[in-house]
Prior knowledge:
Bound molecules: zinc ion
Shape: elongated
Number of helices: 18
Order of helices and strands: HHEHHEHEHEHEHHHHHHHHHHH
Largest sheet: 5 strands, parallel
CATH architecture of the largest domain: 3-Layer(aba) Sandwich
CATH topology of the largest domain: Rossmann fold
Radius of gyration: 27 Å
Mean pLDDT: 88
Helix content: 55-70%
Strand order of the largest sheet: 2-3-4-1-5
Structural class: alpha/beta
Amino acid sequence: MSYTVLARKYRPQAFESMTGQEHVVRTIENAIKLDRVAHAYLFAGPRGVGKTTAARLLARALNCEKGPTSTPCGECKACREIRDGTSTDVAEIDGASNNGVENVREIRENAKYLPQGSRFKIYIIDEVHMLSQAAFNALLKTLEEPPGHVKFIFATTEAHKLPDTILSRCQRHNFRRISAAAMLKRLQEIAALEHVKVSGSALSMIVRQSEGGMRDALSLLDQVISACGLDPSDADVAEALGAIDRTVIHAIAVALVKRDAKTLLVHTEELWNRGVDLRRLAEDLAHHLRHVFVAKATGAAPEELAESDRDAVVALARESDAAQVARLFDVVHSSVWEIARAPQPKLALEMTLLKGLHLAPAAALPELIARVEKMSQGASGGRSTSAPFRA
Ligand SMILES: [Zn+2]
């Protein structure tokens, strides 16, 4: 049997199993139940968050032999054909490569005819913002007077590029980036189903790299499995992703908080020798310090962290001083740009970290107060000097 990529294998087959888009799903389910399905939908949102999946599910919901229903059976001819992309009544069109007026004219011509055996003729146009102006104009004519048996579902990552005339004739749904916590949970489920022994900490590296897109996350998991097999260590996963092992990032954060210059320099040297991108390191470190700060402020580690990382973050938060962590974050975060452009990135990173050691936590609060006082003095001074001009 040929291998099916995870993103495809675990593509949701029901509205209820779509991760992170509950607000959209609820509205569409209700519309189907109340028989108030619009004739044109626009699904807008970032890549890989489920727009096309939702479009196919909606097509199934409308054409299922047991429907229209918000829970299409998945087994009838219509459901199966839509899943396999062989339905003659459901056309999936890539707007990027079919963006000309002649393509839309073909759709219009075709839309006149009744569906063959299904309830509706459904046109799913992906990346619809790529259509030419002339194509949009042609499409508009159909949207203005749609035949009753036709439904349009448009998907786009760039809704702002659509003409208002099109937007105003669609029911728009905004898809969100999937939260890190929801993605981590889903990846853990899938890893278990696939018998991959990968730690939560390693999966959270994948979550961070995929920026809220489930499809990208699953592609990365595929990549990890093919590079490292079914039992990868955190270091293996980091290497496969070109990421930096979280335990190293945490060790650096600990060394910063504890003012341990030697450990900092040893880690920097080692990462540099391994060819790690130091800008990436600074970014990851800034993120990690942010997590520590959140833990300090709320008393709990952010939910997006894996269980195993949470304890470490909370422990470090307990040992550190909020003002110190805040200032460490400032120093590291503002160095990212510098490190990326430095002729000698290692030097820039080392100096950033060493500067971080010399932030005095005890002095931080009084210093802040002094700064605030100075600012308020400056402000009142400003008023007094400007007063004569106003008078
Ligand atoms: Zn069905």
